[in-house]
Amino acid sequence: MYTSVCKHCHKVFKSRIRTACCNDCRSTDENCFDDIVEYLRRFPNSNAVQIAEELGISAYVVLKFLEEGRLELSRGTFSRLED
Ligand SMILES: [Zn+2]
User: How much distance in Å is there from the Cα of 6 to the middle of ligand 1?
Assistant: First the structure.
């Protein structure tokens, strides 16, 4: 079991797979993901900050999708934020 922190509600939860989304936020997560994919289709050269601002979500959420391996950005200039 993995202990993770939900990227949406920041709740700590346990899960079988490594994920950054708790069960309560599943549908939020799916909607978020669809919005990002759609946005990148229209604006392929966007970075995490632009996506986040445009969709009204946090850049952290966008980067988490990358970390989870759900968002693949082979094209364009999508860049990771320096921390
Ligand atoms: Zn959550």
Answer: 5
